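Example (one chain per record):
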Amino acid sequence: MLSFDASFFQDLSRGVWRSDVVAVLLVVFLVRLFLKSRSRIRSTQLHGPKSNNVLFGVLPQVSPGSGGMDNYFKKAIEDYGTVFNLPSGFGRQDLVVCDAKAISHILSRDTFTYYRPAFARVLTDILFGKGIFSLENDGHRRLRKALTPAFSNAAIRSYIETFNDNSSKMKAAWDSIIDAAAGGSVTIEVQQWMNNLALENLGRTGFSHHFGTLEGKRPELIDAFDSFQSPGNMGFASKMVFLLSTNFPVLLNLPTKHTKMMRRVRYAMKGIADDVLEKAKAELETNAAGEKITDKSIVGLLIKAESTSGNLSMTSEEVLAQMNSLFFAGYETTSTTLTWALIELCRNPQVQEKLRQEVNTKLQGADPTWEEITLGLPYLDAVTQETLRVHGPVHSIRREAFEDDVLPLSKPVQTASGTSTSEIIVAKGQGIHIPTTCMNTSEDLWGPDANQYKPERWLGELSPGAQAIQGHHHVLSFGEGQRFCLGRHFALANFKSALVNLVRHYSFELPNGKDTIIGKHFGAINRPKVEGEKGPRVPLLIRRVD
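Predicted structure:
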C-alpha cells in the first residue's frame, strides 16, 4: 500500500517538486487502472449509467451532500434494475445493490468479507480518532463488546426517568416563551431545541454530564458539530480532493480547508471529551457519584476498559475516539429524526391528533415508562417506524469487498452481455453502494404508496417485499448485520419519550401551512430546513393543548 509522510504533503501544498508529484500520481493512476482492469475481468459485468468523466465517474452525483443522490439512484434503478454497475473514476466500476437478499448477504459479512471503504475509514479517523466507526474485524468486535452493556434494555430502562426529566425542562422553557407572547401561540425554531434535548439526554445518561443546553447554555460541542460542512458546501480544491480520495484515500492527508476544519472539530470534541472523562474519574475517586457512573453507563464502561487489561481493554486514545464517535452519533441522528417527525405531524394533522389521543388515553397525564413506550403505545411505534422509513438519517451504506465473493439475488438480473443471472461475482476491491433511502421507499417492496407518510401501514401486516428486508422492523435506517447500530434501542427510547412529551402538551403547525416548502441543509447529517431560512432552521407554530 502506498504511504506518504507529512513532509510530502507540506511540499505539495507549497508547490515544491511538482514534476515529482505529477510522476508519482501518474504511476499511481496507471497502477490503479491496471488493478481495476483485472477487477473488471473477475467481476460480473452489468448494465449501468455511463460517464465521460475519467477522474470521478458519477461520484459528484452520488456523494454525500450532493443534494441529488436519492433521486439519482431512484432514476438509475428504474433504468437498470436493482443491481447495476456505477462508474466511479479511474476505470473503477462499483456495484449498486438494491436487492434485499444480496444486501442481507453483504451486511451479514460486514467487517470480514466487506469493509467500510478505505477513504471512509480515513475520514472517520481524522474526525473522531480510531474508534468503532473505522475499525474492522477483531478491533471492531472488541470495542462493540465493551460498549454493549450501556445499550442493553436494562440500562435503557433506567434512562427513561432522565429522558422525561429533560423533556419537562424543555416544556418549562417553552411555556415561558408562550406565556410571554400574545395570543397563546408562538413560533419556535424546533431543530435547535431537538439538538439541545438529544445532547442533554446523551450527556446525563451516557456520560453523567450536564451540558445545560435546556437552560440556555451553548457548549462548544454544538459549535464544533455545526461547523462541519458537507462535500456539497466545500470550496473547489477541497471538493476535488474529497472526490479523488474515493480512489486515493492518501489525498485526505493534504492540508485542504476541509480537512483542516475536520481536525479542528476533532480537537474541539477531544477537549470536551477530556473534560467529561476527568470529571467522571474524579467523581469515582471521591465516590461523589460512583454508583451512577459505574451502573452500565458509557463513561463508566470506558473508564473500566481504560484501566483494565484483557480482551475488552482500550487505550486512552481509543477511549477518547469512542466518546467523540458517540457524541456525534447521539447528537445529530436523533435530533434530526425528531424534527422530521414534527414536520410530518404538521403535514398530517390527522396523524398528530390520533397520536395525541393514544398518548392521553393510555398515560392519563403520567410520564411514559419503558414498558409503555416499548409495547404499550402501538400508534406511537407506527409513527416512529414510518419516520425512520421515510426520513432515515443515513441515505446510503458504502462497503468494499475485502475478498472475492458471490452475491445471491432474490430475482435474476440481466448482465451486460444480455444473459440472465441469479448471482453476481464481486471482485476484491470492488466498491458497493446500498441506497438505504431507495430501499426504504421502494414501490416494488412497499407498494404504490411507498413514498407517502402513512403510519397506518405498521398496524397491519407488511407486504412480502418489505418483509424480505432484514433490518430493524424491515427498514435499513439502523443498518443490518455486524455493524447494526449499537445504540438503536437508546435512540428509539430517546425519540419516543421526547415525542410523547411533545404531543401531549403542544400542537404543531408549519409556518405557511401545508404549502410550506421543506428543503435540506447538507452537513454531516442532512437536516431539514424551511425554505428561505438561513441554515437548518425549522420554525413551527406551537400552541399548548394541556
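Caption: The chain has one domain: 43-544.
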